[in-house]
Design a protein that fits this description.
The protein is α/β, with parallel strands linked by helices and 336 residues long. It is built from 14 helices and 14 strands. It has helices spanning 16-30, 61-71, 83-95, 107-114, 118-133, 143-151, 196-200, 217-223, 235-243, 259-266, 279-282, 295-302, 307-314, 319-329; strands spanning 2-6, 34-38, 45-48, 51-57, 75-78, 100-102, 137-140, 157-159, 183-187, 207-211, 228-231, 247-250, 271-273, 289-291. The strands form three sheets. It has a six-stranded parallel sheet with strand order 2-1-5-6-7-8, with helices on both faces. A six-stranded parallel sheet has the order 11-10-9-12-13-14, with helices on both faces. A hairpin with a 2-residue loop joins strand 3 (45-48) and strand 4 (51-57). Helix 1 crosses helix 14. The radius of gyration is 20 Å and the shape is globular. The two termini are 17 Å apart. 42% of the residues are buried. The model has no long low-confidence stretch (mean pLDDT 92).
Length: 336
């Protein structure tokens, strides 16, 4: 099959959307499928305010349309709702092309964290509803997100779960880290929507680690001098660091999945989180982690979970299965 994927999120960005697309594309190509990409790397871009890693493309609909026509794909997937996604959607609708979309990010909730105005959040929901209803199918990672979209009137929803590299993310002998145990560790972007202060404000025994970078890092380092901020890690370095933790803390209330959750579980590390979409779909409460509106209570409870069970739970999530789901969800560009 010849597949075209349009995405505003792409390398060198480091996030769950990019990792998912990059991994699944690699598997599809290894299976013999041709995959073309339309990404910000193909056009002039500007940095996104408060998130400079994201490059906003200045491409017009005509420019993106020419890329689509030159590719001549069997199926088109529009992965994001940014400038490239909007341009691709407009071109496809004008030409009568069918396409699929995916709901990766709870953008209205992210927006509300930065601009706590209900009208703005609902306007964002309406924008996303219009965007995704124009596609032949919308792919979602979890039941919670599917339920949310059905409540908003979406019907043609298809499951596209996620995977984990269980060779890279694996249990390791826990060595001494800088600071007393238990080690409570957060990993991800250091930004407002991740709600990291809810973790750092807690009175916990041991040491708190924050792995990652972002616009909030310098301010949080000043406010929480006892916490250990490691900066960005990737690959073996990241996996080794996560595997040293006694509990993985996920304070976000706005993620759709949380790829780091299954990466932590694959390392044998139990998860503590709020009972919200993402953690609620991935973490078996009381088995491989703890979900509680009292995050401190969740952390204390998660410390007693079986690390072997955590690893076994993560092994259910494979990238091969994720790639197969994605492929099955695609639709022909033209309906014959």
């Amino acid at each position: 099959m010849h597949i075209l994927i349009v995405t505003d999120a792409w390398l060198p960005q480091v996030n769950g959307v990019v990792r998912t697309l990059d991994t699944v594309i690699g598997i599809l190509r290894a299976r013999g499928h041709a995959v073309d990409m339309v990404t910000p790397a193909d056009f002039i871009t500007l940095p996104c305010p408060t998130y400079p890693e994201i490059r906003l493309s200045l491409a017009t609909t005509a420019m993106v349309g020419r890329r689509i026509e030159a590719s001549g794909p069997d199926s088109i997937h529009i992965a994001t709702e940014g400038p490239l996604g909007l341009a691709a959607r407009r071109h496809c609708m004008r030409r009568g092309y069918r396409f699929t979309t995916s709901y990766h990010t709870r953008f209205p909730e992210y927006l509300y964290e930065r601009l706590p105005v209900r009208r703005a959040r609902e306007a964002a929901h309406r924008f996303l509803d219009r965007f995704h209803r124009s596609g032949a199918a919308i792919m979602v990672a979890t039941q919670s997100i599917e339920d949310m979209l059905r409540e908003r009137g979406h019907t043609n929803i298809r499951r596209w779960s996620r995977g984990v590299d269980t060779v890279l993310f694996r249990p390791q002998v826990r060595r001494n880290l800088n600071g007393d145990r238990p080690i409570s560790l957060y990993c991800g972007r250091v930004a407002t929507e991740k709600n990291i202060e809810a973790f750092l404000d807690l009175d916990l025994p041991g040491t708190k680690y924050v792995v990652g970078d972002g616009p909030q890092r310098s301010g949080l380092e000043r406010r929480y001098p006892k916490a250990r901020f490691t900066g960005y890690h990737h690959g073996e370095s990241l996996a080794a660091l996560i595997a040293q933790a006694d509990v993985f803390v996920f304070p976000s209330r706005t993620d759709t999945f949380g790829l780091v959750l299954i990466e932590a579980l694959a390392c044998g590390v139990p998860v503590a989180a709020y009972p919200v979409p993402g953690p609620r779909d991935v973490v078996a409460d009381g088995v491989v982690g703890a979900l509680d509106e009292d995050l401190g209570a969740a952390i204390r409870r998660a410390l007693h979970m079986d690390r072997t069970a955590c690893r076994g739970h993560a092994e259910q999530y494979t990238w091969e299965r994720s790639a197969g789901q994605f492929l099955d969800n695609l639709v022909p560009v033209r309906a014959y």
